[in-house]
User: Which sequence fits this backbone?
């Protein structure tokens, strides 16, 4: 059973009846679900994942103390701790006395503050540039089972919609970065006889290109160990996953290097076509597929003058 399904069943079978009986006035004020850190919040958990931090559990997100005071929060914590210790064939872990648990009673403001640096999801354009996409992914992943007031869901919706100027700034930086790492530095490192440096160039190129693909899908790239899983689920350019895997896993001998350079060129061409298709650069021009030139063209299309004037790597 997947963690999200286990969490929903545990809530519906064990959690909801307790809250409806003992905290009926509280239910309209809280959000219930499972999101945040952990493979189960992305739906990527499997048998290997269950060796740590896997249990029947859900999150109870509370508003500020003006709506739910500390005593009520404490009583709710006790009620959550008293829920069955086993469910669905899995055992719940002990609650940590010093915090850090992924489940249970959590102030919504604390959750969002830990993910994006803002308790209510309000971010300036400069703050949007500083928040890692993997953290934003954790703020909007998973599933909310109940949110009568809608406040928690509203913040998640805000954070899921990265401003277009920020998409362009991040995309511009990744395009310039991948040009330097792949078409330029990979063959130069090989010419110097530095095969390790060449592989680092291939890794750098792959990371930048993957991030560009996520941006073109308007999706946040999660923590690296789940990036390929998420990449294969994207609607646009998900087919590049196999090419990226080849760049990372193949050697740098003469024959492989020639193939790698061809693969790098193909990826650049496909990215360029998609950048133009989405209107980030002149869609009628196919003469120049240079990712660096495209990156600066994307940057030139940023509406906010201050963001546009920032260093090209400000969003990287």
Assistant:
């Amino acid at each position: 059973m997947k963690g999200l399904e286990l969490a929903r069943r545990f809530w519906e079978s064990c959690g909801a009846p307790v809250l409806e009986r003992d905290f009926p006035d509280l239910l309209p004020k809280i959000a219930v679900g499972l999101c945040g850190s952990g493979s189960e919040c992305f739906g990527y958990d499997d048998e290997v994942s269950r060796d740590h931090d896997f249990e029947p559990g859900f999150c109870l997100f509370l508003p500020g103390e003006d709506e739910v005071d500390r005593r009520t929060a404490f009583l709710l914590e006790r009620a959550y701790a008293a829920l069955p210790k086993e469910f669905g064939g899995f055992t719940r872990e002990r609650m940590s006395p010093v915090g850090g648990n992924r489940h249970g009673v959590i102030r919504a403001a604390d959750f969002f503050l830990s993910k994006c640096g803002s308790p209510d999801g309000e971010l300036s354009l400069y703050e949007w540039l500083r928040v890692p996409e993997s953290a934003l992914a954790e703020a909007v992943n998973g599933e909310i089972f109940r949110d009568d007031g809608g406040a928690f869901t509203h913040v998640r919706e805000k954070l899921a919609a990265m401003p277009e100027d920020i998409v362009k700034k991040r995309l511009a930086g990744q395009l310039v970065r991948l040009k330097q790492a792949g078409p330029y530095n990979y063959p130069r490192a090989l010419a110097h006889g530095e095969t390790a440096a060449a592989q680092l160039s291939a890794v750098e190129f792959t990371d930048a290109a993957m991030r560009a693909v996520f941006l073109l899908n308007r999706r946040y790239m999660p923590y690296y160990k789940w990036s390929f899983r998420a990449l294969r689920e994207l609607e646009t350019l998900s087919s590049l996953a196999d090419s990226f895997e080849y760049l990372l896993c193949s050697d740098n001998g003469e024959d492989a290097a020639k193939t790698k350079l061809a693969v790098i060129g193909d990826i650049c061409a496909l990215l360029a076509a998609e950048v133009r298709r989405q209107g980030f650069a002149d869609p009628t021009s196919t003469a120049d597929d240079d990712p660096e030139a495209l990156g600066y063209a994307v940057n030139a299309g940023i509406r906010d003058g201050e963001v546009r004037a920032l260093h090209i790597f400000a969003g990287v």
In short: The CA atoms of residues 79 and 131 lie 35 Å apart.
